[in-house]
What we know:
The protein is mostly helical. 68% of the residues lie in helices and 0% in strands. The protein has helices at 2-22, 30-52, 59-80, 91-95.
Amino acid sequence: MTLLYVISLLALLWSVFERLVLVDPASARLSVRVAFVALGSAALAGLYWAIFRGYAPDWPDLLLAVATAAVQWLSARHLWHGAVPGDYRPTDAVSSRPAADSAPP
């Protein structure tokens, strides 16, 4: 079970890294950047405890790590497309979005 936990945390950490490469103050709100840093920090802490401190995760820990990694990977596939989604951009960046990126009337 620990191996699956570590694998899911590595997947989660990689998905956070991919997001943080895309975000900067001009492209994403501060709250979005802070949330991804916190999520990545939690994944790193879980990895540290599982690998170096002998932490043995139970089923809820494993399911939460797998589910969070799955949500991250699915949102990367369907929402991010190599750029920050419009709702995560600063207010001034959202108003300057191209018309093709906006929702239909």
